[in-house]
Specification:
This protein has one domain (18-347): Alpha-Beta Complex (Spore Coat Polysaccharide Biosynthesis Protein SpsA, Chain A). It contains ten helices and nine strands. It has helices at 31-38, 68-75, 91-96, 122-131, 181-186, 219-222, 241-256, 275-298, 308-323, 328-347; strands at 18-24, 42-47, 63-66, 101-105, 109-110, 166-175, 199-201, 214-218, 259-269. Helix 9 (308-323) runs antiparallel to helix 10. The chain is globular, with a radius of gyration of 20 Å. The chain starts with 17 loop residues before the first strand and ends in a 17-residue tail after the last helix. Its EC number is 5.4.99.30. It is found in: Golgi apparatus.
Length: 364
């Protein structure tokens, strides 16, 4: 395996198989810094907020832009499942994409540098993460055994060394860490300067807090589970959109024998959001998550759930039954989960029925 490099390859990896999805309310000047890495790819921009506002995209980027009017026109009544005035609207881009892979990034994220001062091609590293197997069923103490200079350690079962297919690559951030509001208030000046040169597979049965600002996934393997919920305008909660998607996705990946990686690549997160505004958005979620986490930890999907859609519909029923008791919001969210799958299938008619066999998936 060739040594991994942060420089852009001569022929961009997956150039015709990957879309970059960006939610925004402002002009996308940040793309200038990403031009060497992003320009070969197609961009899907999801404009949040006032649809009459014109969003400027730097010249030379192949892109399509959708605002709220477009979402309403394309989805009709089902558009109610797409959040408004919240970055959760990005999942509309996942739905309308026709590519196999998705990379999503926030507009306050810039190119980071590794400890040698070299600019990090985050997209290239995500692609490498997705194209190599994951190891969710047994932890390798040298982390990613498929990287150059590493391998499976003594005692690792040979029967599991083919690994599982990787569904999600979760990247990290230098500078402004992804903290919740209480932590922001306690540590207003804290910055992440630690660059850890590692990629880990999150073990089966272990949940994690997924952040959507530097995230890639195999849309064909797990796309229908990447619903960022009902957040923002008219909803009692915000800033839990990516968390919700991550919990649902992890339960489904565990059931279908798929892997999720976290670690490299890093981006430079440039702007800390207002902790007081964040606290208002997160307030109920901070309490609710103490019941949400045990719910997802104990969630079990039936053997009949052989596709992501079937898994997601069954999970929505459990959300309605068990979380609906916490607050009526979760009954509304369960309805939206079903609507999301219906809208996904409307725009992405199943080829036959993409069934994923249970248990460890064979590496390709």
């Amino acid at each position: 395996m060739a040594k991994e490099s942060s420089s852009i390859p001569c022929t961009p990896l997956l150039k015709d198989e990957l879309d970059i999805v960006i939610p925004t309310i402002r002009n996308l000047d940040f793309l200038e810094m990403w031009r060497p890495f992003f320009q070969p790819y197609h961009l899907i921009i999801v404009q949040d907020g006032d649809p009459s506002k014109t969003i400027k995209v730097p010249e030379g980027f192949d892109h399509e832009l959708y605002n709220r009017n477009d979402i309403n026109r394309i989805l009709g009544p089902k558009a109610a499942c797409i959040s408004f005035k919240d970055s959760a609207c990005r999942c509309f881009g996942y739905m309308v994409s026709k590519k196999k892979y998705i990379y999503t990034i926030d507009d306050d994220c810039f190119v980071a540098k590794d400890p040698t001062g070299k600019e990090i091609n985050a997209l290239e590293q995500h692609i490498k993460n997705l194209l190599s197997p994951a190891t969710p069923h047994f932890f390798n103490t040298l982390y990613d055994p498929y990287r150059e200079g590493a391998d499976f350690v003594r005692g690792y079962p040979f029967s599991l060394r083919e690994g599982a297919r990787t569904a999600v690559s979760h990247g990290l951030w230098l500078n402004i860490p992804d903290y919740d509001a209480p932590t922001q208030l306690v540590k207003p000046r804290e910055r992440n300067t630690r660059y850890v040169d590692a990629v880990l597979t999150i073990p089966k049965g272990t949940l994690f807090p997924m952040c959507g600002m530097n995230l890639a996934f195999d849309r064909e393997l797990i796309g229908p589970a990447m619903y960022f919920g009902l957040m923002g305008d008219g909803q009692p909660i915000g800033r839990y959109d990516d968390m919700w998607a991550g919990w649902c996705t992890k339960v489904i990946c565990d059931h279908l024998g798929l892997g999720i990686k976290t670690g490299l690549p890093y981006i430079w997160h440039s702007k800390a959001s207002n902790p007081f505004v964040n606290l208002k958005k997160e307030y109920k979620g901070i309490f609710w998550q103490e019941e949400l986490i045990p719910f997802f930890q104990s969630a079990v999907l039936s053997k009949e759930c052989t596709t992501v859609q079937k898994c997601y519909i069954e999970l929505s029923k459990q959300v309605r039954e068990k979380l609906g008791k916490i607050d009526p919001y979760f009954t509304k969210l369960a309805d939206a989960m079903v609507t999301w799958i219906e809208a996904w299938d409307d725009l992405n008619p199943p080829k036959v029925a993409a069934e994923v066999p249970n248990g460890p998936a064979k590496a390709k």
